[in-house]
Design a protein that fits this description.
Calcium-transporting ATPase, cytoplasmic domain N
């Protein structure tokens, strides 16, 4: 295929682009994210205070500094310093084996405490892969002609629907023209010239609102619930409509019920699609609230508003989801087919295009946190018993040091259990 030269004229700075705006939203969301205290941090202060008080009391009450030394020697911080990271890293390793990338210990600790879920629709609840099942054309046009015009313009777009239209036209062997004067409104439409004629492709109601045509009559009555409709306008008049259903992922209803059983108290569908499309997809699913036609900054507000119900997890896949993923306590980006910006902003990235990985991730996180807590409580409990024995004079410093090492080894081995299911 030969290269075709073209002239590129820039009228705005890169900092004024939509993508740059999304990046700024992501950075602002990350800065405003509520800090979560780490598991070890919460216990360290209590342990330190108890150790100092017990050692001082043993010295002051008995007048024997050796007892204070014995208390300090046997006071092992390893259940905090080592066992929590060991359990967390073991959980990260287990998640990676199952195709889930979790970015750090803080993410897995927070994931274990999630109580609210905000989830995107296209590419998340649904496959994000559409196929043209019907073409409605205005009088005097053929379906292949309409498809060729729409696909020619959509070559300039990276939107999943645009790529589907282009792929369908190429599969039919249609000769596509090179579009000119292309202007894309993210999530709404793409405009330009095909064969010298002005063409507009986008959402049905958006296009109808611009050109003033009553386009609903072109929709087939048997259209699947939630199916997408891409309208094509040529010379300022509606030329036709392409019907593309986006199928719900298999097992989605059961997955959401399983998340409820794990303690997710509230599930919200947040999408940029029209309300009737979002409502059709949500029908029959255990979803508490459906919010539609949301811009990226509005998705951030949705995440922040759900914090009243506990730590919030956001699941999405597109560039428009990146700010909300960054604002959530835990963000999960569908990494196999999602946008690079969303994967960068998220804390979790499933490496396979399967939504059920969120269930596995939460189970692994909770199991790892349970093992970490178990190791901390057991280790600190044994340490406190040993410290009391040392304060009472039953445990000299040398024997205390040996016992301290035995406690450390025992709780570290226990923390390694997080490697298993």
């Amino acid at each position: 295929m030969s290269a075709t030269p073209f002239d590129l004229t820039t009228t705005r700075l890169a900092a004024e682009s939509t993508y740059a705006g999304v990046v700024r939203l992501v950075e602002a969301a990350q800065r405003s994210r509520a800090p979560m205290s780490r598991l070890a941090d919460r216990y360290a202060i209590v342990f330190l205070a108890a150790t100092v008080l017990l050692a001082a009391a043993a010295w002051l009450l008995t007048g024997d500094p050796v007892r204070a030394v014995a208390v300090l020697v046997v006071a092992t911080p390893c259940p905090l310093i080592l066992t929590v990271p060991v359990a967390i890293v073991a959980g990260l390793s287990r998640a990676a084996k199952l195709g889930i990338l979790i970015k750090g210990g803080k993410a897995i600790e927070t994931l274990a405490q999630v109580r609210a879920l905000v989830i995107d629709k296209t590419g998340t609840l649904t496959h994000g892969e559409a196929k043209i099942v019907a073409i409605r054309v205005s009088e005097g046009r053929t379906s292949d002609e309409l498809l060729r015009i729409a696909a020619s313009l959509d070559q300039a777009s990276k939107h999943i629907i645009a790529q589907t239209i282009v792929a369908e036209a190429r599969n039919k062997g249609l000769a596509l023209a090179i579009p000119t004067d292309v202007v894309e409104t993210p999530g709404e439409s793409i405009a330009g010239r095909v064969d010298g004629r002005p063409v507009l492709v986008g959402g049905l109601h958006y296009i109808a609102g611009i050109i003033g045509d009553a386009a609903a009559s072109m929709l087939p009555r048997e259209r699947a619930p939630g199916a997408l409709a891409a309208a094509v306008a040529v010379d300022g008049r509606l030329a036709g409509v392409l019907i593309l259903p986006d199928r719900l992922r298999a097992g989605t209803e059961q997955l959401l019920h399983d998340l409820r059983a794990l303690g997710i108290e509230r599930i919200v569908l947040a999408t940029g699609d029209r309300h009737e499309v979002a409502q059709a997809v949500a029908t029959g699913l255990p979803i508490d609230l459906v919010r539609s036609e949301l811009a990226p900054d509005q998705k951030i507000l949705m995440v922040l508003s759900e914090r009243k119900n506990g730590p919030v997890m956001m699941i999405g896949d597109g560039i428009n989801d990146a700010p909300a993923l960054a604002a959530a306590d835990v963000g999960l980006a569908m990494g196999a087919k999602g946008a690079a910006a969303s994967a960068e902003a998220a804390d979790l990235v499933p490496l396979v295009d399967q939504l059920d990985r969120v269930l596995l991730a939460i189970r692994i996180a909770r199991h790892s946190r349970f093992i970490a807590l178990q190791s901390v409580i057991a280790g600190m409990g044994l340490s406190f018993l040993a410290m009391i024995a040392a304060a009472l004079g039953f445990l000299p410093p040398v024997e205390g040091a040996l016992l301290q090492e035995a406690i450390d080894v025992a709780v570290i081995f226990n923390a390694l259990r997080a490697l298993r299911g």
